[in-house]
Structures are given as structure tokens and as C-alpha cells.
Amino acid sequence: MTNALNAELDAHDTRILAELQADARLSMAELGRRVHLSQPAVTERVRKLEAAGIISGYRATVDLTRLGYGIRALIRVGRADYDRVVKLVQQTPECVNAYNVTGEDSWVLEIAVEDVAHLDAVVSKFCLLTETATSIILNVVREHQPMLPPQPPPSSGGKAARRKPIKA
Q1: In which band, very low, low, confident or very high, does the pLDDT at 18 lie, cut at 50, 70 and 90?
Q2: Among the listed residues 108, 112, 19, 17, the one whose alpha carbon sits nearest the alpha carbon of residue 62
Q3: 127 has pLDDT over 60
Q4: For residue 151, what is the DSSP state?
Q5: Is 9-51 CATH 1.10.10.10?
Q6: DSSP-based helix, strand, coil % in the chain, nearest 5
Q7: pLDDT score for 166
Q8: I want to staple 105 with a disulfide (CB 3.0 to 4.6 A). Which of 10, 64, 76, 146 is the partner?
Q9: How far is CA 59 from CA 21, 25, 91, 114, 143, in A?
Q10: What's the rounded mean pLDDT across residues 54-79?
Q11: Could you give the 3-state DSSP secondary structure of residue 159?
């Protein structure tokens, strides 16, 4: 999203984004009440945010532990053929997120597995491609952080800051 598009978002749009990221199941009437707009007005704004691609979807957040995935891990994958890694990621349902990155590693994969044996089986698939390093996630400090448009830096009121002369 460009900064020009950010400029088109007003305080109501930003509040709509914050509310929907906190609870995407809100009715348009309740969302309107929370952002102080009528239901038709808030519905139109949500449709515009969707059409602009700012809101790209709605989904349920599930607890992977309660689904039976007792271990979450990060696999760092070294340099390997891009298409081979993509194909293996697509064939690996345990891969929750996959990031093609810069730096020493080419990929960072987040996986969810049942136990250590399951972890070994998944990691072994990627070891066939190239070198890997695996870290088990012990605690999640932040996940699914709501994001709002970047705020422009505060203006100085049109006055340039004056420096005091340095006394010798």
C-alpha cells in the first residue's frame, strides 16, 4: 500500500480497521456504533477498504495446542532452488507460515507438529534440500498484532528548529 493511499484513510477508516482486527465478527450495526457512523456508512467504508485490498480477508484464529499440535518451531532453510522449496512448503500441511528472506538463510518456516518424532519427520524433508537450523518456540510474546496505517511525523508547526549558538 502506498503512502498516497494511506493519506486517503481518515480517522473513521483507521478505527474501523482497529475494531475489525480486534473482532472480525462484529455486525455492521455494532461496528457503526463503535466508530460513531451509521450502519450504511460503515458498510460502505468497509466495502471500499476491501476493494482497495486493505482488508484482504477474514478468518478464525485457532489454538494450535488445542488442535493437538504440541510443538511449534521455526526452521531456517539455507540456499536452495526457490521452486523446490515452494513446492515442498505447499506439500507440507504442518507449515503454518513460510517467508522467503534475505540474509544467511533463504527461508524461515513456522511449523506446528504433534511431538518430537513429528518434528523430526518434517525437518528431515527440508534437510534433503539444503542445510537447515531448527528452533522450538517456547513462548509467544506477540502474535496477530493489529496494524494501523503509519502515522506521519509530527509537524513542527511550520517553524524550523533554531539551534543555539555554541559558545567557545
Answers
A1: very high
A2: 112
A3: yes
A4: P
A5: yes
A6: 35, 15, 50
A7: 46
A8: 76
A9: 10, 9, 22, 23, 15
A10: 95
A11: coil
Write down the residue that cell numbers 522467503 correspond to: 100
CA dihedral 61, 63, 66, 72 (to 10 degrees): 130
Average pLDDT over residues 77-93: 97
The residue-averaged pLDDT of 131-151 equals 93
Q: According to CATH, where is 3.30.70.920 located in the chain?
A: 71-136
8-state DSSP, 73: E
Higher pLDDT, 152 or 82: 82
Band of residue 151 on the pLDDT scale cut at 50, 70, 90: confident
Task: Summarize the confidence of residues 145-155 as an average pLDDT.
Answer: 83
CATH 1.10.10.10 segments of the chain: 9-51
CATH topology of domain 71-136: Alpha-Beta Plaits (3.30.70)
CB-CB neighbours of 46 under 10 Å: 20
**What is the enclosing helix (H) or strand (E) of 145?**
none
Q: Which amino acid is at 166?
A: I
| Phi, psi (deg, nearest 5) at residue 106 | -100, -25
The C-alpha cell at 129 is 534440500
For residues 118 and 146, which has the higher predicted lDDT (pLDDT)? 118
For helices 28-35 and 11-22, the axis angle rounded to 10 degrees is 130
Name which of 144, 102, 143, 148 is nearest 1 in CA terms.
Answer: 148
